[in-house]
Design a protein that fits this description.
Blueprint (H helix, E strand, L loop, with lengths): L4 E3 L2 E3 L5 E6 L2 H4 L3 E7 L6 E6 L5 E3 L7 E6 L4 E6 L8 E8 L7 E2 L3 E5 L2
Parallel strand pairs: 2-11
Antiparallel strand pairs: 1-3, 3-8, 4-5, 4-9, 5-6, 7-8, 9-10, 9-11
């Protein structure tokens, strides 16, 4: 059973920052593309950011320049640093891992991010 354990969500004021973390096993982490999706109420789940096993990253246009995804291979952890947060960033954020030998993602349990004054 593959587990992805997320942390770091919460309530923050507009303009504030949060850092999400997602840890998994070393076997999965070292060989997988890792990333974050989010889902706001009444909206479809969207890919926010991803990072491959190297340093190549990709972001949805709405977060470019504000969010940064990174991975720490020693800790088997992927991070999403979120700055200049906006109310539109409010959503449940889900971490995922996509190993090359699978045609589907492994998912974390989700963590709530609420941006509100």
């Amino acid at each position: 059973q593959v587990q992805l354990v997320e942390s770091g969500g919460g309530l923050v004021q507009p303009g504030g920052s949060l850092r999400l973390s997602c840890a998994t096993s070393g076997t999965i982490f070292s060989r997988s593309t890792m990333g974050w999706y989010r889902q706001a109420p009444g909206k479809e789940r969207e890919l926010v950011a991803k990072i491959n096993t190297g340093v190549t990253t990709d972001y949805v246009d709405s977060v470019k320049g504000r969010f940064t995804i990174s991975r720490d291979n020693a800790k088997n952890t992927v991070y999403l640093q979120m700055n200049s947060l906006k109310p539109d960033d409010t959503a449940v954020y889900y971490c995922y891992a996509r190993p090359p030998w699978k045609n589907y993602n492994f998912w974390g349990q989700g963590t709530q991010v609420t941006v509100s004054s």
